[in-house]
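FORM 7B: Structural annotation worksheet

SECTION A. Query
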Amino acid sequence: MILKPKKFSFQIRFYIVLALVMVHLLFSLNPNDNSIHNGKLRNIETYQDLENQSVFNFSIFSDNHGNSPSSNINMAKANYHMRKTNDICVLGVGDHMMKNGTNDFLYYVNNDSFWKEHFYPTISDGENIFYGASQADWGAGRLFIDGCGLKNRENITYSPEGADYYAIIEAPQHYRIHFISLHFPDEPEDTKVAFRESSKNFLRESLFKINKTDHDIVVLAAHSHFGYWLNELRPELYRQVMTKADIVVGASTHYYEKFAPEGYEVNGPIIVNAGSLVSPRFGSHPGFVQVHLLEQHRGIFINYVDVSKPTNTLGSSPFAHFRTFAGKIYDVYYQNPIL
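SECTION B. Predicted structure
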């Protein structure tokens, strides 16, 4: 006698399928929740672990005031770390030159292959007064962009004034970094003059060109007056930024800080003030931001590298965060917070 398998009723089959769908949703809607345990990423305990799992990394810094790795110890430490960890690019947020300073940084950039090929600066008031009449001499600092050799790069599109630009930087495994650099100097005090509508329009047009996927990392930078500049955008452009950007950076105050606008406390871009490598304000520490792309964890790890300490140290929130490709932000805790 051949026994035929018993068929389940339609109702039982329905509930089996429903259960399978629920299990799938449980593990697919928040895949990164399984990557974070007790404030740490799965399988990442040390900086070496982070390096081993990174597809690539890049750095962001500001306010070196003309100092190069040859003339300033903090710049030298940052330079050593960036090269040792094989940063694919270094993004600047302004005040890279200073009137009456040492200003050997431009010479260093032009005579060092790493900086010559991989540095993408933002211009601000420091560049304006170095090349122009004053800090408020809007756009005068664009000569610094020319001086760094960016005009010869085919991956860059400039605004009509030449003070803003959009660079597409190719990265390993078909990833791309979209860097939009905007000119928003400390002066003049009137932000409508310092952060012109032309720059905002350039931002809008550049964002519109980006067909955002998990392989596109969008970074926006503007020096600004107080390190946070999204409040200067109109609502429509603000929403566009919060939807497409992965990282938004400001500077100016020489104080590293992470911002969490209302409604975007745990979702949206990571928004930080990059601090200062050579002259941090009291209560802050000299350092720069380093970003690691972790494909296994489906996101990016953002770490403020304090050069007054060993640079191969993982930080804790608010100096380190993990952001998923889907836009969810997690605090991480590896070291005691810097007070």
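SECTION C. Observations
The first helix runs from residue 10 to 28. The first strand starts at residue 36 and ends at 37.

SECTION D. Sign-off
Analyst initials: ____
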